[in-house]
Specification:
By secondary structure, the chain is α/β, with parallel strands linked by helices. The chain is built from 14 helices and 22 strands. Strands 1, 2, 3, 4, 5, 6 and 17 form a seven-stranded mixed beta sheet that branches. The protein has a five-stranded parallel beta sheet with strand order 8-15-9-10-11. Helix 6 links the parallel strand 9 and strand 10. Helix 1 runs parallel beside helix 9 and helix 3 packs antiparallel against helix 4. The protein is globular and about 65 Å long. Flavin-adenine dinucleotide binds next to helix 1, strand 2, helix 2, helix 3 and helix 9.
Length: 463
């Protein structure tokens, strides 16, 4: 044994690195194992951050091409410099991952570079070197789910990782899967000029999201030009000289058809990644989808081994992983770490954005909970009109008896920022009336949240 720690965290994504910082703040001796050349995991390197950099750049490009003229700004010509856009994305990623390295140094977290393996409770080896530790936290994240029979080369048939790296805009991009990642990256390449066809097995997009929001979202994206082929599955992808020929069949049976495209993004979901950790030998339990079940203190079935983030059940989101990282660090330091899973927001960073928190209407119906709905369209919001961004609405669901906010669903400009107010309200057990009585600055998009809260009682002022 070369060194010993209070905690060794395997994986430096938002779960692992935040856990490391919090544990170090609480006086624990902490090491974090990361095999990638840079810290920050999927999120900072090939996930949230690079995708948002490209979403921002492509949004700017699209606005310059399409909506500047509405504001009286006439550009004689605009040209895409994709190489520069990609370089900027890499700079953004570089600044973020370096930031985590700086925070590790500042908080005296040791970065053990290499692949971590659990040898025994209390013993981790990294590329052959052994370390002793009181606690082990698995924060190894997730990977893209492959589709049987479809070979990914990350050039023409890609996962999200390859779709962040295209050196040219594909003429026709097929996206297999109508989930968050597919729609965000589909929006990027569509804004930059690609024809985009989304092929989805189910008869709806963004499964699990409030139905009304999903339907409106699809309508808005279709209006923007994305083509949806719902209720269909891709059964084959043959590489051709020109690109890829997809074989597509109706999900419920029927004649197959083919579609020629230049590139294919396979985005049918993500699965936990725990390869090579030694979980089988250690007897660490996993469920039938590969997730590691944990108790409310993030303990696995093996004493001294904990797990957080995408590797455990729950929404696969960076902020959920971060909050679990903080909670488990606090629990190990003898504090009362806790995550409220009823108030975890989820955002789709297209334009307009989609943001949700808490229960959907369908979930409330299923649970037999009586609820009231308050809705307010951005069309009636002064700021949204000034921005020229009037698509969408705010929808608040409140308990019919107590008026307590049970869920909120927003489709509209900056929905991801607007949802934070409702998350805060839910954390404090607020009623819709509470939100309606709070003073909101005018003219702001947040007034649409206040109006939706007032609408729960049928007393919205501007509609
Ligand atoms: C394209 C894309 C966009 C996304 N956008 C968003 C978004 O906007 N908002 C959001 O909330 N979420 C988003 N996500 C999801 C988000 O990235 C994940 O939920 C989050 O990264 C999970 O964090 P984690 O700490 O559990 O694991 P990860 O971030 O996956 O990190 C795990 C790390 O562990 C390392 N590792 C694994 N095994 C070992 C080992 N044995 N030894 C050493 N190191 C190991 C890996 O190299 C990796 O760096 C996106 C994902 C993708 C792919």
């Amino acid at each position: 044994m070369t060194d010993s720690f209070d905690v060794i965290i395997i994986g430096s994504g938002p779960g692992g690195y935040v856990c490391a910082i919090r544990a170090a703040q609480l006086g624990l001796r902490v090491a974090c194992v990361e095999k990638r050349a840079t810290l920050g995991g999927t999120c900072l390197n090939i996930g949230c951050i690079p995708s948002k950099a490209l979403l921002q750049s492509s949004e700017n490009f699209h606005a310059a091409a399409e909506s500047f003229k509405d504001h009286g700004i006439i550009l004689d010509s605009i040209k895409l410099d994709l190489a520069r856009m990609q370089a900027r994305k890499s700079e953004v990623v570089g600044a973020n991952v370096k930031g985590v390295e700086f925070l590790f140094k500042k908080n005296k977290v040791t970065w053990l570079k290499g692949t971590g393996h659990i040898d025994a409770p209390g013993a981790v080896s990294v590329d052959g070197t052994s370390y002793a530790t009181k606690n082990i936290i698995i924060a190894t994240g997730s990977e893209s789910i492959p589709l049987p029979g479809i070979d990914i080369d990350e050039k023409t048939i890609v996962t999200s990782t390859g779709a962040l790296e295209f050196a040219e805009v594909p003429k026709h991009l097929a996206i297999i899967g109508g989930g968050v990642i597919g729609l965000e990256l589909g929006s990027v390449w569509h804004r930059l000029g690609a024809r985009v066809t989304v092929i989805e097995f189910l008869d709806r997009i963004i499964p699990g999201t409030d139905d009304e929001i999903a339907k409106n979202f699809q309508r808005i994206l279709a209006k923007q030009g994305l083509v949806f082929k719902l209720g269909h599955k891709v059964t084959k992808a043959d590489r051709t000289e020109a690109g890829v020929t997809l074989t597509i069949e109706p999900a419920k049976g029927g004649a197959a058809e083919t579609m020629d495209v230049d590139a294919v993004l396979v985005s049918v979901g993500r699965r936990p990644y725990t390869e090579g950790l030694g979980l089988e030998t250690m007897g660490v339990a996993r469920d039938n989808r590969g997730f590691i079940p944990v108790d409310p203190h993030y303990a696995t079935n093996i004493s001294g081994i904990y797990a957080i983030g995408d590797a455990i059940p729950g929404p696969m989101l960076a902020h959920k992983a971060e909050d679990e990282g903080v909670a488990v660090a606090e629990l190990l330091a003898g504090q009362a770490g806790h995550v409220n899973y009823d108030a975890i927001p989820s955002v789709i960073y297209t334009w307009p954005e989609v943001a949700t928190v808490g229960a959907s209407e369908e979930q409330l119906k299923k649970a037999g909970t009586a609820y009231t709905i308050g809705k307010f369209p951005f069309m009636a919001n002064g700021r949204a009109r000034a921005m020229g961004d009037t698509d969408g609405f705010v929808k608040i669901l409140a308990d019919k008896r107590t008026d307590r906010v049970l869920g909120a669903h927003i489709i509209g400009p900056d929905a991801g920022t607007l949802i934070a107010e409702i998350v805060t309200a839910m954390e404090f057990g607020a009623s819709a009336e509470d939100i309606g009585r709070i003073c909101h600055a005018h003219p702001t998009l947040s007034e649409a949240v206040k109006e939706a809260a007032l609408a729960v009682e049928g007393r919205a002022l501007h509609i």
